[in-house]
């Protein structure tokens, strides 16, 4: 056997024969009165940091940067206007770098009464053993407090990765919930490796990640999906979740969903959800607070 095969075999043989995420199953708590399902309406504000995280030299590539820059110049203001018109509040997970570079955009989000969550500082994907893990969390917390006066309750992992050290760190730093995992359709409580409870998880719904539905730029592996394809998928997902009495979580980016055609279809989808009459469209903070309240009552 070749050395690389031997190393692979040793690694596989060392794997625990247990689920990687050992959190207990999600409890089936009822949604607040009058609601049969929930939608966690959330946006990830990455701006240029989405493009520089893997290669800071890209900062000099001004057209690549302009995809992120659209977020502050056009995308976020237009989304805020739409949310005002619909009377909806959302959660915006913002990277610390974006707060420093685009303070006026972030102040506008705050002024409209939306929740602001933590999304790392440089949008580094949190990976096991990463020496920058704590710095990403602490620098993000510091800038949210200094620039916006915000102590975030929620965290979404940049590029959607997680590890045990991060689970522990976020609990130590006083965060209440994360919205990063893809393994459920209801909120649940994380279980740390030491057996103590971790944060509340508000699992994300991959079909509501607009990044995967096409971005008009050179690095995208996806073509832009037309309105009909996206709307029918989003409605089907929501309708089935309503039958299940569960929740969906959007993962929308102003550099995607702030584009005119996309904003138009998002508006139509949100109006559809509002028209259902039974969907609780809420911020992460509201859903996590409802979950902990039910948890307490269940004793
Ligand atoms: Zn992001």
TrEMBL record:
Pfam families: Polysacc_deac_1 (PF01522)
Gene Ontology BP, a term: carbohydrate metabolic process
Chain segments annotated as transmembrane: none
Domain NodB homology stretches: 61-282
CDD domains: CE4_HpPgdA_like
Record Gene3D superfamilies: Glycoside hydrolase/deacetylase
A molecular function (GO) term: hydrolase activity, acting on carbon-nitrogen (but not peptide) bonds
Family per record: Belongs to the polysaccharide deacetylase family.
Function of the protein: Is involved in generating a small heat-stable compound (Nod), an acylated oligomer of N-acetylglucosamine, that stimulates mitosis in various plant protoplasts.
Official protein name in the record: Chitooligosaccharide deacetylase
């Amino acid at each position: 056997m070749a050395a690389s095969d031997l190393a692979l075999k040793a690694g596989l043989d060392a794997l625990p024969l247990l689920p990687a995420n050992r959190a207990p199953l999600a409890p089936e708590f009822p949604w607040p009165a009058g609601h049969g399902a929930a939608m966690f309406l959330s946006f990830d504000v990455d701006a240029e940091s989405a493009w520089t995280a893997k290669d800071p030299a890209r900062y000099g590539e001004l057209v690549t940067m302009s995809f992120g820059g659209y977020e502050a110049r056009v995308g976020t203001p237009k989304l805020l206007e739409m949310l005002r018109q619909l009377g909806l509040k959302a959660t915006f997970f913002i990277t610390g770098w974006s707060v420093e570079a685009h303070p006026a955009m972030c102040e506008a989000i705050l002024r409209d009464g939306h929740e602001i969550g933590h999304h790392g500082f440089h949008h580094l994907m949190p990976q096991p053993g990463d020496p920058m893990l704590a710095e990403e969390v602490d620098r993000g917390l510091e800038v949210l407090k200094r620039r916006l006066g915000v102590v975030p309750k929620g965290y979404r992992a940049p590029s959607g990765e997680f590890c045990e050290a991060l689970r522990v760190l976020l609990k130590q730093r006083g965060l209440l919930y994360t919205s990063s995992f893809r393994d459920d359709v209801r909120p649940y409580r994380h279980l740390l490796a030491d057996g103590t409870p971790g944060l509340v998880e508000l699992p994300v719904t991959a079909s509501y990640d607009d990044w995967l539905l096409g971005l008009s730029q050179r690095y995208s592996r996806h073509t832009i999906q037309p309105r009909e394809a996206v709307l029918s998928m989003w409605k089907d997902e929501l309708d089935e979740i309503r039958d299940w009495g569960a929740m969906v979580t959007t993962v929308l980016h102003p550099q995607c969903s702030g584009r005119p055609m996309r904003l138009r279809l998002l508006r139509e989808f949100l109006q559809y959800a509002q028209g259902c009459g039974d969907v609780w469209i809420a911020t992460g903070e509201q859903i996590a607070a409802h979950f902990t309240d039910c948890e307490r009552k269940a004793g």
